[in-house]
Design a protein that fits this description.
The protein is an all-alpha fold. Helix content is 83%, strand content 0%.
Amino acid sequence: MKQYWIRIAENASWFLLEKFIRLVGSVVVGAWVARYLGPSEYGILAFAISLVGLVSFFGSLGLESFLVRDLVQQPGREGQILSTYLLIRLAGAWVAIALAIGYVAFVHPEDRGLLLIIGVLCSGTLFSAMEGVECALQARRQARKASVFRAIAFIAASLFKCGLVLLHAPLIWFALATVTETMLIALLYRGTLSGLGVRFTREMFDRSEARHLFFDGKYMILSALTVVIYSKIDLLVVGELLPKEVLGNYSVAVAMCSAWNMVGMSLTQAVAPYLGATRVNATDTYTAILRKFLGLMLALSVVGSAVLGVLAHWIFSVLVGPAYTIGAGVFAVLVWSSVPVFLGIATSQIILNEHLYWLSLLRTTLGMCFTLALIVPVASIFGVHGVAWLVITSGCIATGSILFSKSAREQIAVLLVPRLSFKGAQP
């Protein structure tokens, strides 16, 4: 058993290093930018990023896993498969741009500043189409190169933001800095194509491949849509119903929670390959690793959330200053949403390894529907603190819905009671 944990740590070190750089940079640089802009302007930027993030779903559709599968299974058709996917993403990016600009023009016709910021941020959806090259790297087992590219682009964009703060730049420049990371990654990926020996041309678009991706991925597309709505709707509603200064406070709290959640996501991504391998070849080892992993995620999320909650006001005072006092109180509550998030990410390995894909869609759909049904009245009556409690509750509902599956219940019972045996879901 010990050898598995050693191999996990060794093989995931480069991946975790990139995540650690992103975690530290997001907290430190993000806090400095928030302190400089102030709650009001930071709230405007956060609202614009959330809106673009919501509509950018049409620029990805959540088909990455199917692309990797096809590239692995059909190495001789890399050019056609990758060109088809990239062109689909480019077409979807234009749809996303039209939706974002159309929304602002209709709902906030007098706010030309917001429209300009949205326009700048939307350009990132075009550059993000090149992220399909990362799937080609994964298919060739060169994912390490993708992590290096992401780290380089993130560091460059972070330094750009620091320079803007020192130069006392206006808000629009920070929108441009946000797009810079995506643009740099796109340029690095574009330069990688020739090294991979893969051509990307419009003439290589394959209609049969496009139909294949959409047919096989229809449930994944729907699941990705529910996830993006579920994850962005709180910021958008707070931005529409409450003052931008309040949104700025809430956004900082959300950003801090996201940084903490990144720890759980990184650990899961590091352990996932070994869970998948042992599920096929060594069920007892798989169960033992999964039991320890879930225990680690539960303990880490509870202890970490408790410590961060107690230190919330001190953290906000040091990082973003007294202007974000409201955000400190929200963060002290919202950080507890990390417990269902950590457990949800961890138990997703049960869903994946037992092929319970419908359960993943059920989870996100229940969380989305619960949030959509209550967020407007909760935000109107209870403000951002009420929204924080709603996020925690919806997270518990989404994570707890794994119990709807008999196979998942049986495996969880085995994890809780070691003397039981588990045979797994029937194919």
